[in-house]
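User: Can you write out an input/output pair for a complex, sequences first and structure second?

Assistant: Here is one pair. Inputs:
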Amino acid sequence: MATIYAVGVGPGDPELLTRKAERILRQADVILAPISRPGEASVALDTVRKFLDERRQEIILHQFPMTSDRTRLIPAWQEAAALIAARVAAGQDVAFITIGDPLLYSTFIYLLRIFRETCPQIAIEIIPGISSINTAAAAAGVTLAEAEERIAIIPATAGMDKVVEALVTYDTVVLLKVKPLFGELLEVLGRMGRGQSSVFVERVGSPRQKVLTGLAEMAGHNPDYLSLMIVKQPGSCL
Amino acid sequence: MATIYAVGVGPGDPELLTRKAERILRQADVILAPISRPGEASVALDTVRKFLDERRQEIILHQFPMTSDRTRLIPAWQEAAALIAARVAAGQDVAFITIGDPLLYSTFIYLLRIFRETCPQIAIEIIPGISSINTAAAAAGVTLAEAEERIAIIPATAGMDKVVEALVTYDTVVLLKVKPLFGELLEVLGRMGRGQSSVFVERVGSPRQKVLTGLAEMAGHNPDYLSLMIVKQPGSCL
């Protein structure tokens, strides 16, 4: 039976692909890669291109606009789901590729929901990928948690009150989507005594990777869209 | 310069090793695998054995007792650090292998701290691994987070008050080390209306993998040591 594979390709370094992801990408009939603008490069596709055979495999770039406007998003998800379902019905295996992990803040989640509602009998296999969180910790040499420690993972855009609550309560706080609130975050982290226990990582696993340790190094930086911060309790070792 | 590689080998399935981990394990001179009892098998070593060449590579099983008694743990860490440092000083590359990710609840964290204190000039490279959290979500088909959602990761042994606080506050709660408190956890989850929005996964990525969805399926189960739960808000789709 033809299958939809949701393949996490990791943070952007082809070496951080799993062996399973590589095998599935070599075998699939169709590869669908998300992009946010027409004509834009796909980080996920660039990561896996050397495993593909463009003479044999169909490669589709599908646009998912970078917006929270659901009247624009829903048609893009439905169109992608229809494209995929048609190929599966024709007996083709389709690999939807996504940077990081398919179940952690990925576009695939919306497609999964559509498939469950509209064609629950379709075969879906999810291949976990190395998340940018683990890769950023490795690049910065920062521990995520040990023993009984607790971790919170929060998009900064969820609200500064939620960020503060997590910083007070959790041993390690991973802040995602830091770009739009970067200045405000630096101020809050400074006020909460995290000047030495914060690290910023952007474009992790790519040639453009940057690691900034401590708030002094971060001040004045203009973050990339693909960036995150790992914040520990004051006085803890990074 | 000889290097210490901390290699995350993923949850236990050789296909969920990254291509980078495979390359480093094939090249390393020495492989050090943790075990918790003498004579015990190492899940990490079993995962990577087919990439090793026992005629050329030194393979060391080192015991880290499964205890919180630091008078027993500290000597085990120091002995492992000394074993590794001696080989690096002799020009050998050493790969310390760990299931999951080396910076997420792994024994490697203690060694990293010893190296930073006692020989800060030693070269250490950390290779992120697929965490059991991402693999469990993929196996169960449960989303970890989307959009502005927030995730808490908590060892259940941190205290039931902390578990309850996270369940109230966070969209997704990942509970680790659930074995010693399994009965009590099921009771708390039932009381908090999570009967349908909890999933239990043990030995993920291994032939002994088990996924139990909803509290009714979990009742009466005797969990394996390598098990976790993913809990969503009441009424949310798994």
